[in-house]
Every structure is written in structure tokens, then in C-alpha cells.
Design a protein that fits this description.
By secondary structure, the chain is α/β, with parallel strands linked by helices. It has helices at about 60-70, 85-100, 110-125, 130-135, 140-150, 150-160, 175-185, 185-200, 210-220, 240; strands at about 5, 20, 30, 45-50, 75-85, 225-230, 245, 250, 255-260. The chain is globular, with a radius of gyration of 21 Å.
Amino acid sequence: MSRYLNVGCGGHFHKDWVNVDFNSYSSHVIAHNLLKGIPFNDNEFAVVYHSHVLEHFYKKDTEFFTKECCRVLKSGGILRICVPDLENLVRTYLNCLERCLNGDENAYADYEWIMQELYDQSVRISPGGGMFELFRQGIPNEDFVRSRLGSEVDSIKHACQNQIAPKPPKKHKLKYWKNKLREWLLKDDLKHLETGKFRAGGEIHNWMYDRFSLRLLLENCGFKEVSFKNYNDSSIENWNLYGLDMLDEQERRPNSLYAEAVK
């Protein structure tokens, strides 16, 4: 039986696949630091898949990671990638900008959202960033936002409505040293330290891709026959049975770019 690998899976995986992520919260997911490589032998898998992973890597790390995907694939195997679509994002931004410049007041909320979507994923310094704040304030253009985020809108709204107070820190040596650190550091130094810790935590986007740059990356890493797909279209046999790019039979992450390539 062919083996399929899902890397950087988060909580969205299929139990019949081999699933790997930086952290594991399921017995079906292997925990491994993917920046150190993919923990399998050469030519082991018929398919390698990752969704909304590549944009979280620094550009200097993406070539190593993509070559690792190639290494563990069998000859003729398929790599499938899903990433945020920079081209789609920029075209939507330009459309909203043009509407605002032409005096369309109905475009203002869409423009504010798309600006947040364009920059917030990269510059945020706290979980959820400015996009989360817009949800807290109430979004008047939910249909537009839902067209951008899909069912993720419901998860964010639920989080805003049911915020759980942070647990008090446990009384142990870590609390002691945190308090000492606060004594030793100036207020701005501590703020910068906390910001740096957040930004290194993996939530932010460090790079984005369009059809041209993603094709170049794949070809430079040894892949051929690069093609672009829809969420429910694939050269992978029985792709839609696994539901990895779907949620409730709808596109899981709208406005994504889907690419496949052959080793």
C-alpha cells in the first residue's frame, strides 16, 4: 500500500496518512522540528502534502524544506502544496482601493479588512493581531470576510465571544526568574523581549507566494510537471476522500494557491 505524508498538519489530518508537525496533540501525529528535516528515509512516500506551512518559514529555509519533501518522495511521486495566494490578495486589495477612490462607501470595510489581511499576518505582535481586533469590534461585512477566510470565521467569532481568562502562573522557579527578569530589564526591554518571543513562535507569515515564485521554487528543488489546481482537483488518487483541503465539503481555506509537482 502506498504511503502518504502530511507535514505541518496541525489539527487537520487523516488517520490513514503519516502526519507530522512541530507539536503533537494526537496519537496520529508525530512531533518533529521540520526545520531540521523530515524524519524519514529517501524514496519512502508516494505523496507528500502540506497546507499553509511554507509561508511560516523564512525564505532561506524554504528551499531546504522543499528539497526534503523531494528526498522522501518516490520517483514519480506527487508533492501537493497549499499556501495563501499572494496574487489573489493583491488583486483584491487593488479592487477595494479602486472602489474607495471612486467614492464607494460600501467598500471602506472591505478595504480595512484586506489591508489587515495583507499586513497583519506579518507584522502582528500578539495572537490574532489586528484581524482579531476587527472581529471584537464587530465586522459589518461578514460576507466579504467569509469569502476570504471560509469557515475559519466561525472559529474566530467563537473565540471572541468565549474568551477564557489566562491561567495564573504556577508557583515554581520559573515564576521567580520571570519576576527577577522584570526587575533587571527596563520596561521597553521587557516589551521587546516578549514581542520577539511571540514572533518566533510560528504564528506569523514570513514570506508569501504566487504562481510564478512557487513554480520557480519547485523547479529549483528538483520537481517537474508543476501544475496549479483547485481545492477539489488533484492528480492524487481519491484525493477528495481525504478531505484535507475541505471542511464540511467546502473549501477549507478560500483564496489559497494549490500546486502539484512530480519528482
